[in-house]
């Protein structure tokens, strides 16, 4: 059912009973979860002395001052568990990743350049030597791969130096396939793309398995919507409803409650006939927003919009601000965050949910004066985790907001892939997962 968030409004039909299951892990069925993981690979094959090609995500930020200094090693640390597991099994690990968007050009330095800046960090994190080659396929790379001995690590060059990478070029896929007999996919952030190094290469391997990072993402994100501990609550924000339409449509089929925030809410308000002042709106989506509200009502799902917002007279952190009911917006005022009354209602809904998915900020959180809604939701997620709820944060902006609030380790799971996490929540099959060997 659709409603504006308010403690005085009817809640409608009673909530579905909460599951007694307190585990934060899921045991969902489905194609994506039936794939071989790295531990299963090690059970099936003696990996000692075997070359294993491992697709990882090494897209680390670099310093703007010198273009070569890594400023955040989060993504590098994320690949350590799977890499060390393979090394402990005696495998020779060949790491491959794209870096930025060089679009088929060889760029020496910078965010679209060579992977040289990550080498010293990988050596330190893995506690072993890492040899890098300046290509990702061809005779020289094949020779380097053939000379690997037990427990060595080889890093390939930026796969997107080849324009065919993003086109799932067969020549590149087979070139990568010549380097190893086994493939481990651990780059969730690119699993939704059918590229040569994610989907194509798996066809050239004896077996292809999910690494720890990818396996965890599948269990949490797919488990959250396919087999949740109910009630299931989704908190969806962001600037534009057009980018979230598929996920909202999918969540209406699966959730008990959906809380909406961010700039997208004003498109819904316009569909309801409200004056939205100078707030962000997608006029071509207004009709669809109305249809989503109707669909939620027909399904008996609570689709809840904020009842109050924080207004500003300009898009600036130093703007004049005011809190107003959503039917009191007018003139040149624009909504940049959700209001305090709404946060109370959201707190009530989150407190009664056993699985909570958060995707998209509640306001312009990059500006401190309009960050309270997003930060408060992050804090509510942390509290829910403490009481045993499963809490999942997906999407780049949501993750950034939770980390900025210092709560990254206070939720059950933070997804490493923005687009990939959205597509999983939409119920789509990810090419990089579909290509893996069945368990």
TrEMBL record:
<dbReference type="GO" id="GO:0006094">
    <property type="term" value="P:gluconeogenesis"/>
</dbReference>
<feature type="binding site">
    <location>
        <begin position="395"/>
        <end position="398"/>
    </location>
    <ligand>
        <name>ATP</name>
    </ligand>
</feature>
<feature type="binding site">
    <location>
        <position position="335"/>
    </location>
    <ligand>
        <name>ATP</name>
    </ligand>
</feature>
<dbReference type="InterPro" id="IPR036043">
    <property type="entry name" value="Phosphoglycerate_kinase_sf"/>
</dbReference>
<dbReference type="GO" id="GO:0043531">
    <property type="term" value="F:ADP binding"/>
</dbReference>
<dbReference type="Pfam" id="PF00162">
    <property type="entry name" value="PGK"/>
</dbReference>
<dbReference type="InterPro" id="IPR001576">
    <property type="entry name" value="Phosphoglycerate_kinase"/>
</dbReference>
<keyword id="KW-0067">ATP-binding</keyword>
<dbReference type="InterPro" id="IPR015824">
    <property type="entry name" value="Phosphoglycerate_kinase_N"/>
</dbReference>
<keyword id="KW-0418">Kinase</keyword>
<feature type="binding site">
    <location>
        <position position="160"/>
    </location>
    <ligand>
        <name>(2R)-3-phosphoglycerate</name>
    </ligand>
</feature>
<dbReference type="GO" id="GO:0004618">
    <property type="term" value="F:phosphoglycerate kinase activity"/>
</dbReference>
<feature type="binding site">
    <location>
        <position position="244"/>
    </location>
    <ligand>
        <name>ATP</name>
    </ligand>
</feature>
<dbReference type="GO" id="GO:0006096">
    <property type="term" value="P:glycolytic process"/>
</dbReference>
<feature type="binding site">
    <location>
        <position position="75"/>
    </location>
    <ligand>
        <name>(2R)-3-phosphoglycerate</name>
    </ligand>
</feature>
<feature type="binding site">
    <location>
        <begin position="57"/>
        <end position="59"/>
    </location>
    <ligand>
        <name>substrate</name>
    </ligand>
</feature>
<comment type="subunit">
    <text>Monomer.</text>
</comment>
<feature type="binding site">
    <location>
        <begin position="98"/>
        <end position="101"/>
    </location>
    <ligand>
        <name>substrate</name>
    </ligand>
</feature>
<keyword id="KW-0547">Nucleotide-binding</keyword>
<dbReference type="GO" id="GO:0005524">
    <property type="term" value="F:ATP binding"/>
</dbReference>
<feature type="binding site">
    <location>
        <position position="193"/>
    </location>
    <ligand>
        <name>(2R)-3-phosphoglycerate</name>
    </ligand>
</feature>
<comment type="similarity">
    <text>Belongs to the phosphoglycerate kinase family.</text>
</comment>
<comment type="pathway">
    <text>Carbohydrate degradation; glycolysis; pyruvate from D-glyceraldehyde 3-phosphate: step 2/5.</text>
</comment>
<keyword id="KW-0808">Transferase</keyword>
<protein>
    <recommendedName>
        <fullName>Phosphoglycerate kinase</fullName>
        <ecNumber>2.7.2.3</ecNumber>
    </recommendedName>
</protein>
<dbReference type="GO" id="GO:0005829">
    <property type="term" value="C:cytosol"/>
</dbReference>
<feature type="binding site">
    <location>
        <position position="366"/>
    </location>
    <ligand>
        <name>ATP</name>
    </ligand>
</feature>
<dbReference type="InterPro" id="IPR015911">
    <property type="entry name" value="Phosphoglycerate_kinase_CS"/>
</dbReference>
<keyword id="KW-0460">Magnesium</keyword>
């Amino acid at each position: 059912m659709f409603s504006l968030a308010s403690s005085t409004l009817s809640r409608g039909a009673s909530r579905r009973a909460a599951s007694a299951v307190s585990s934060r892990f899921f045991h969902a069925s489905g194609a994506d979860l039936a794939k071989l993981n790295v531990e299963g690979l090690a059970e099936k094959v003696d990996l000692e002395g075997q070359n294993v090609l491992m697709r990882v995500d090494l897209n680390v930020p670099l310093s703007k001052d010198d273009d070569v200094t890594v400023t955040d090693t989060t993504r590098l640390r994320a690949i350590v568990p799977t890499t060390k597991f393979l090394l402990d099994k005696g495998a020779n690990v060949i790491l491959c990743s794209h870096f930025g968007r060089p679009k088929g050009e060889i760029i020496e330095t910078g965010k679209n350049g060579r992977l040289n800046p990550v080498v010293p960090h990988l050596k330190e994190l893995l506690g072993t030597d890492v040899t890098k080659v300046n290509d990702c396929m061809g005779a020289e790379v094949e020779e380097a791969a053939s000379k690997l001995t037990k427990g060595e690590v080889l890093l390939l060059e930026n796969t997107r130096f080849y324009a065919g990478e993003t086109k799932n070029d067969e020549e590149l896929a087979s070139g990568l396939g010549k380097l190893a007999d086994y493939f481990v996919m651990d780059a969730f952030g690119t699993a939704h793309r059918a590229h040569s190094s994610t989907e194509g290469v798996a066809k050239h391997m004896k077996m292809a398995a999910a690494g720890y990072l990818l396996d965890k993402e599948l269990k949490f994100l797919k488990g959250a919507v396919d087999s949740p501990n109910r009630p299931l609550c989704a908190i969806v924000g962001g600037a534009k409803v057009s980018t979230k339409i598929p996920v909202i449509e999918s969540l209406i089929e699966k959730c008990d409650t959906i809380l909406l925030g961010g700039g997208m809410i004003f498109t819904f308000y316009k569909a309801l006939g409200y004056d939205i002042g100078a707030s962000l709106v997608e006029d071509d989506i207004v009709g669809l927003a109305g249809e989503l509200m109707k669909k939620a009502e027909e399904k008996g799902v609570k689709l809840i919009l904020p009842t109050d917002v924080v207004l500003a007279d300009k898009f600036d952190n130093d703007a004049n601000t005011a809190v107003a009911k959503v039917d009191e917006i007018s003139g040149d005022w624009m909504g940049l965050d959700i209001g305090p009354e709404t946060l109370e209602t959201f707190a009530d809904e989150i407190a009664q949910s056993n699985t909570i998915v958060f995707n998209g900020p509640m306001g312009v959180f990059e500006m401190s004066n309009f960050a309270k809604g997003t930060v408060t939701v992050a804090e509510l997620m942390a509290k829910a985790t403490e009481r045993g709820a499963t809490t999942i944060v997906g999407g780049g902006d949501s993750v950034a907001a939770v980390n900025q609030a210092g709560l990254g380790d206070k939720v059950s799971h933070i997804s490493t892939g923005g687009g990939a996490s959205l597509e999983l929540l939409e119920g789509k099959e990810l090419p990089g997962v579909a290509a893996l060997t069945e368990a």
